[in-house]
Amino acid sequence: MANLVTSFMLWLCLISYAYTTIHAAPEWPRGRSTRFYDFKIQTMTVNKLCNSKQIVTVNNMFPGPVVYAQQGDRLIVKVSNESPYNATIHWHGVRQILSCWFDGPSYITQCPIQPGQTFTYEFTLVGQKGTFFWHAHVSWLRATVYGALVVYPKPGVPYPFKYPYEEHIVILGEYWLQDIVQLERQVVASGGGPPPANAYTINGHPGPNYNCSANDVYKINVVPGKTYLLRLINAGLNMESFFAIANHKLTIVEADAEYTKPFTTDRVMLGPGQTMIVLVTADQTIGKYSMAMGPYVSGQNVQFQNISAIAYFQYVGAMPNSLSLPARLPSFNDNLAVKTVMDGLRGLNTSDVPKEIDTNLFLTIGMNVNKCRSKTPQQNCQGLNNGTMAASMNNISFIKPTVSVLEAYYKGIDGFFTDNFPGAPFRFYDFVNGAPNNAPNDTSSMNGTRVKVLEYGTRVQMILQDTGTVTTENHPIHLHGYSFYVVGYGAGNYNPQTASLNLVDPPYMNTIGVPVGGWAAIRFVADNPGKTLMSKHVT
């Protein structure tokens, strides 16, 4: 389902370690130049959808400030928590080479920054450039605590495409009228799923389709004949989203901060956590054209917001009050539209795709319904079949510890995690169509804080398999500290005898949408010592 609650996030910790007797200690990345940023996590009042409310932001900005850097730069970001809530900042897509302490997920690499406290993130952008973003990584605060991280190539290094006339950041988001922290507490206590967002937003603006929002619209002014670079970021909490511009083609040239071979399409789909660069040429008659964000919902019986957010792609010379031409989005459950875009993604620089594999991992991903164990079931067991909803990998739901996993591992503190996460399901069956624990039978998962330990340099292939225990659906899976080659994907159950893998030019990504009722195969080399978190990038 698109809506999962904090208590059953899909989390898997991978720990990569190096034997010091074999591998010399690598030199700490120092960075070409150092850039300093000062983040203050604060509450501010916003007026949207006919209502006024307090939200948590950074530097009283929604979305938050853009962090700019160049490849190889060192970033130092001092975060002061002036909000009443615990907080951390995750630098989504940054590999954190030898700086995993600063990755940001709470209770994985650090304890939260408590109200009134500060924490300084320090890391070097080793070998990376492109479109990233940052967001809160405690509870649901990332619904409003997010912003772009733009990393340019080194000086003198050109783009592998024609230099655009201008570039713009376009962040897709979701907005709730209710206080997001209170909403999270209510949902967790209920055992069910969260309500859909009250609105979608483009750079924090819902657009004219929503009440009291005719003037709450983001706009890009464009010059006829010029080409524009749009840095698309899905910072949404739950919703996978389509994006399109009326009467204009989008040419994808980057996905998850890695260049791709150009692919032109009418629309794109980004799951939460995914980023993309598209080139758009203003080649239509002078006018005002809608940029639209709408839902992609692959699960069954899922509530969702069906009103699109609208922004304007407006030509210089267009009448200010002219009507905008509507953008055509796919239907909310158009799986073929999603597959068509994924089929078109091909990596540009793929010389180091692992051809041989040392470790094969097989991970099932799915929803669970745990038995109600509450003395007040009407309040606490509002999931399917009067149970509590959960999610799992290999039928194990992750339990957040009270000490960060990285600290416990580094200091040798026992009792906070175990290193026995299974590399394959406990049993194999027809994962998509014939789950043996289909409701109303036993649909419960096991609980644990389990990690998988990999030796440094291990060449890993990981199969991510959707399951139909409750419902099949598309799963946006994010791997912290790494990018990976998406060497294959398909419908149904993964079969190594028939699966077609692309080892020539697969896209290199950090977040992959595992197809609804299907599988994805990814490959990477475990060459980043420390803790790595794999998570489903929805709440």
Give an overview in words.
By secondary structure, this protein is mainly beta. Helix content is 6%, strand content 40%. It has helices spanning 180-190, 335-344, 377-380, 405-411; strands at residues 11-17, 34-48, 51-58, 67-70, 74-81, 89-92, 118-124, 130-136, 146-152, 166-175, 199-202, 219-222, 227-234, 240-245, 250-255, 258-265, 267-270, 275-281, 288-296, 309-315, 359-370, 388-393, 396-398, 446-448, 451-455, 458-466, 475-479, 484-491, 508-509, 511-514, 518-526, 530-536. Strand 23, helix 4 and strand 24 form a beta-alpha-beta unit. It is globular.
Summarize the entry for a quick read:
The protein is mainly beta and 539 residues long.
Overall geometry comes to: globular
Oligomer: single chain
Report the uncertain regions.
1-9, 19-26
Query: How far do the termini sit from each other?
Result: 11 Å
User: Strand order of the main beta sheet, please?
Assistant: 11-10-13-18-15-16
Question: Cα-atom Rg, whole angstroms?
Answer: 22 Å
Pairing-aware structural class of the strands and helices?
mainly beta
Helix content: under 10%
Q: What characterizes the major β-sheet?
A: 6 strands, mixed
Task: Give the number of helices.
Answer: 4
Signal peptide: 1-24
GO molecular function: copper ion binding; hydroquinone:oxygen oxidoreductase activity
Keywords: Copper, Glycoprotein, Metal-binding, Oxidoreductase, Signal
Family: Belongs to the multicopper oxidase family.
